[in-house]
Amino acid sequence: MPDTPPHFTNKEIAEQLRLMGDILEIKGENRFRVIAFRNAAESIENYGQDLYGVHAAGELTGIPNVGKGIAADIGQLLDTGQIAYLEELKQEVPVGVVEMMRVPGMGPKKAARLWQELDITSIGALRTAAEQQQLRDLKGFGAKSEEQILKGIELLATRGEERTPLGIARPTVLDLSTALKQTLPAGVLVRIEPAGSVRRWKETIGDLDLLAVSEQPEVVMDAFRALPQVSAVLAAGPTKTRVQLANGLECDLRVVEPQHWGAALQYFTGSKEHNVQMRELALKRGWSLNEYGLTATGRGEATEGEKRFFAEEEALYEFLGLEWIPPELREDRGEIQAAVAGNLPALIRESDLLGEVHGHSTWSDGTASIAEMATKARARGYHYWLVSDHSVGLGIVGGLDDERLRKQAEEIAELNAGWADAGVDFRLLQGTEVEVLADGSLGLSDEVLARLDIVVASIHSSLRQDRETITQRCLRAVRNPHVDILGHPTGRLLGKRPPTELDVEAVLQACVETGTVVEINAHPSRLDLNDVYTRRAVELGLKIAISTDAHAPDEMDLLTYGVGVARRAWLTSTDVINTRPLPEMLALLKR
Ligand code: DGT
Ligand code: CA
Ligand code: CA
Ligand code: ZN
């Protein structure tokens, strides 16, 4: 009897396909084949359903980017536990060479050459060779590449346990909760809410947590384990289940009685640090706090052993003498003291936003026309939207120069005239996302910048400059009198690219001196500035812009993630420029 093959998650299946693409690329095979495997991997990783069911129904080719050939490979993997073709490929290229390719800055071509020309077949050997300066003699490599490779290896090692960006985790847990509501007969599920770091809008998530109220916990547990999104049950109890999902994330579900909901939601929302402080505060008042409620210690007014339960979280906070604390603030950063004093900020809400000041169209790398983007902006209830296509200098196709900006201005003026005639309270602004070049000069001249309504300056290239160089570069851009907003300051891509070495504090100080606004880029792969830096920025007196940097109409809906960062940074609507009507917003800019 053959061993039963393991149950692969969609993420693991995607990894196998990606590995095929990587090996083919190292072998120098046809680019389109390589890309086909990567596109399929991407689709599968984001596919909401467990693939075994899809395979059983013969519907693998219904998944975007999965053709017949790749569907056959996947079928083989699910049935037998391996892909014969991949096993063959592995014989040809050592696994270590594929791993080398994942060192930031390496890539398939370099990995292939180091293997073929210097017989380096592992990351360890690569490090030794770089340390012993054996790479610099190779054509196309130098002392600088040795340094970069060593840095890259270090980065790879410190990446540590994987966390998932909120932008993936949050839709996943909401989808689970909806699926569960739809599967269960009416009345079984009384309440269900995400708890844990998702409820706190933390930028990356370790695992998902769901909390529910039901009189029939076992029915809920059975339905949960049977959901098509679930690929494995990791722990199963009468009121608690932990599962692995098809996309690789893990999720805890707990069911509690109605009277315990308030304390349970408080406990499982966390953070752990916030909970530790809450327990201490409760103890001072003579109560011990756990996930069910409060029990009198006998050192307060109540008799020892007396219990208090709370159907709502608000009631628990109130009982302890605190304002209800929004989950985004529950990180033990002073929120409990503020709640005791009744001093919590009135946090900004998504509905406070009246427009956006960073977005793209087909004039540069967006996928929709200015008119289409405006339609979406209006549908969101905005009164203004800034067209800020990329400037020349970035090296992407379609960066705008002086002449194309003039043509674009005509298109914008025509659209605005139409709304003015129709009495519509909506205006487009013309701006640019001007490229901050490697030396800190800008991709457009001051004369051109002076003509535009708003200038966003961002760094997209030479991201690996050392701290001094990139800080000076950024300072020079901020000090340009035409630069109104500093876009995604640290350049990080969550899970993909670390922030630059920028001295953020120095840059924020310069923004104060020059009156430059700082962006929270709301795209869930960026969230840049992050919550901690944003709070610092506002402490220094800076104004913030929350921007989706939309390249397609639907991306404007990602604003909610930027608002999450803003709330975690304790921001109120007055800290943010795009909560203001157009004239007031413009008056907050440099000019
Ligand atoms: P994550 O999953 O790493 O993104 O972060 P959380 O905050 O979702 O952490 P998780 O899933 O381990 O636990 C959910 C919440 O449950 C956590 O925020 C607070 C509460 N909790 C879990 N374990 C403990 C604990 O040992 N002590 C305390 N005080 N609270 C805990
Ligand atoms: Ca969690
Ligand atoms: Ca958990
Ligand atoms: Zn942009």
Summarize the structure.
With 591 residues, this protein is of the alpha/beta class. The chain is built from 24 helices and 17 strands. The chain has four domains: 10-158, DNA polymerase beta, N-terminal domain-like (DNA polymerase, domain 1), CATH 1.10.150.110; 164-256, Beta Polymerase, domain 2 (2-Layer Sandwich), CATH 3.30.460; 261-341, Beta Polymerase, domain 3, CATH 3.30.210.10; 350-587, Alpha-Beta Barrel (TIM Barrel).
SSE diagram, text form:
Elements: H1 10-26, H2 31-45, H3 51-56, H4 68-80, H5 84-92, H6 95-100, H7 107-118, H8 123-131, H9 143-158, E1 164-165, H10 166-183, E2 191-194, H11 196-199, E3 204-205, E4 208-213, H12 217-225, E5 230-236, E6 240-245, E7 250-256, H13 261-269, H14 272-284, E8 287-289, E9 294-296, E10 307-308, H15 313-319, H16 335-341, E11 355-356, H17 370-379, E12 384-387, H18 402-422, E13 427-435, H19 446-451, E14 454-458, H20 467-479, E15 485-486, H21 504-514, E16 517-521, H22 531-539, E17 544-547, H23 559-568, H24 582-587
Helix pairs in contact: 1-2, 1-7, 8-9, 13-15, 20-21, 22-23
Bound molecules: 2'-deoxyguanosine-5'-triphosphate, calcium ion (2 copies) and zinc ion (ZN).
Q: What characterizes the major β-sheet?
A: 7 strands, parallel
What is the CA–CA distance across the termini?
77 Å
Work out the count of structural domains.
4
Bound molecules: 2'-deoxyguanosine-5'-triphosphate, calcium ion, zinc ion
**General form:** globular
The overall average pLDDT, rounded, is 94
- Please tally the helical runs, counting DSSP H or I stretches of 4 or more residues: 24
